[in-house]
Amino acid sequence: MDLGIPARVLNEALDPSGARLYSVTTCSLGGRPVHTNEGFRIVVDDDESLLEEADTVVIATQEPDGHLLATGELPARLAAAFARIGPEARIVSLCTSAFLLAAAGLLDGLRATTHWALCDRFTRLFPDVEVDPDVLFVDNGRILTAAGGAAGIDLFLHLVRRDHGAAVATSAARRCVVAPWREGGQAQFIEHPVPKDADRSTSATRQWALNRLAEPLTLQDMARHAHMSERTFTRRFRAEVGTSPLQWLLQSRLTQARTMLESSDLTVARIATACGFGDPVALRKHFYTHLGLSPLAYRRAHRAPEPARTEPLQVT
């Protein structure tokens, strides 16, 4: 699954003409077949020389071997392959392959994540890395790390959004039939018990609220729509979503504001009203608190420019 995630997501990122914005290929050491722990081998067409021309290098999930766990060092052949990665290439690890990036010295002094079950061992082995076990992914600019399993989907949708804007990322997510956006800071593991009475789920109310973000919604409004007491609604909502109703509402409004900043020329005041913040002062306050920059600075940093490349980005 982890090996297939980059191609599955990135190949669905299309320009307005329908052309792919990324070219994804796969390589292995010596171009040899790779054994898995699931009873099959993966056969690839290229060797590590492909790393020299890649814009982004993705290290698919692999369990650290005994040598690495004992010494914190990469095997010589793997270290030589890492040396072939260009100095400007973006590097991404999925799940436990963060151990390889750390052993290569690429995470020293940086914040990173890996599968929550191995974070303690990672910390003992690489004390110079700040390990966060409670997030889906960490973006350090050139170096990115993702937690286990499906968190890779979130990371690659984040990359598409970063490279080409919200509209392209949302369309890619729709074609992959996955949720369009989960913040990297969301918890790796949240229990989602199935409601005993499906009719008492909060999903219908969440959709109702998303269609009314411009309105001054309250917890009482949402509980009333769900035909629950505020206490019951809050408990069910947190069990299903992993956060409180008002925190979810704020994040939904911020997400809509970010999308509008990236994809429209509307003023900050118009966007603040459309997203339910009421006035631009409140919108600026929440942007500074949650994103560390103003709405206009966010627009300048994330507004997708007109494509300048004639060739798609090379991802290995």
Note the topology.
Blueprint: H1 5-10, E1 22-24, E2 34-35, E3 41-42, E4 56-59, H2 66-71, H3 76-82, E5 90-94, H4 98-103, E6 111-112, H5 119-125, E7 130-131, E8 137-139, E9 143-146, H6 151-164, H7 166-176, H8 203-210, H9 219-225, H10 230-241, H11 245-263, H12 268-274, H13 280-291, H14 295-302, E10 313-315
Parallel strand pairs: 1-10, 4-5, 5-9, 6-7
Antiparallel strand pairs: 2-3, 8-9
Helix pairs in contact: 6-7, 9-10
Keywords: Transcription, Transcription regulation
Domain HTH araC/xylS-type: 203-301
Protein name: Helix-turn-helix domain-containing protein
Largest sheet properties: 4 strands, mixed
Query: What is the string of helix and strand elements?
Result: HEEEEHHEHEHEEEHHHHHHHHHE
Low-confidence stretches: 189-198
Average pLDDT works out at 87
Q: What structural class do the secondary elements suggest?
A: alpha/beta
Question: What would the principal axes of the Cα set say about the shape?
Answer: globular
**First-last Cα distance:** 16 Å
- SS element count, helices: 14
Side-by-side strand order of the widest sheet: 4-5-9-8
Number of strands: 10
Residues in helices, as a percent range: 40-55%
Q: Please state the CA-atom Rg, rounded to the nearest Å.
A: 21 Å
Percent of residues in β-strands: 5-15%
What's a quick, concise take on this entry?
This protein is an alpha/beta fold and 316 residues long. The chain is built from 14 helices and ten strands.
What does this structure look like?
The protein is an alpha/beta fold. The protein has 14 helices and 10 strands. The strands form 4 sheets. Strands 4-5-9-8 form a 4-stranded mixed β-sheet. Strands 1-10 form a two-stranded parallel ribbon. A two-stranded antiparallel sheet has the order 2-3. A hairpin with a 5-residue loop joins β2 and β3. α6 packs antiparallel against α7 and α9 packs across α10. The longest helix is centred in the C-terminal third of the chain and has 19 residues. The two termini are 16 Å apart. About 3% of the residues have low confidence.
